[in-house]
Design a protein that fits this description.
about 210 residues, alpha/beta, Rossmann fold, 8 helices, about 30% helix, binds S-adenosylmethionine
Length: about 210
Amino acid sequence: MRLRHKPWAKEKIESYPQYVIGNPKQYYGKWCTLFDNGFPVHIEVGTGKGRFITEMAKANPEINYIGIELQESVIVAALDRLIDAELPNVKLINTNGEDLRKFFAKSDVERVYLNFSDPWPKKRHEKRRLTFESFIQVYEDVLVNGGEIHFKTDNRGLFEYSLMSFSKYGLLLTYVSLDLHNSECEGNIMTEYEEKFSAKGHPIYRCEVKYQN
Ligand code: SAM
């Protein structure tokens, strides 16, 4: 996602530490102290403007959600949603998904969502794909045993690549749809990108995979 540079974004992010966690390391191994409940934590890596994570938090008050987003100029849009929604069970972290191990201990997270991740179609950029082997290893290191990744995209090439990457890693494929919006899957919450691409007639691909540890 490319957005106009917003020089004020950093200052705005810093002025809402109740929503964008400034020092996530302090919650390493003890995220329950932040949310002050015993509910599981689900994270979305590459959360963009935050529609999915906010609507999921509204729909599932018994789950704590954390959106991980690299770009300051994008995460401020997600921050605006959180300010409006005033939900106790959703937070944001402005960081690179490859650094999750710094903030989450093994078993801190129960599920990882990847929605419309950047496809990085050139082979030389393969390592940047959020479903590249090194990212799957990072997710394993923060997830509970038997934790899950839920992935959706409109990009057929990225979807096929990801299915192969998950399978090569030894993950169990528990759900797959090649046309989510014409499937029987209920309760789907659309992301900003999903709305845009499905309006153009693109089919939406979705899968769920599970670690076998
Ligand atoms: N998930 C949103 C949606 O479906 O509308 C946004 C999709 S957008 C194509 C991908 C987002 O992932 C961008 O905002 C980008 O900055 C973010 N992103 C890409 N690589 C990332 C990484 N390594 N760590 C965190 N965020 C990342």
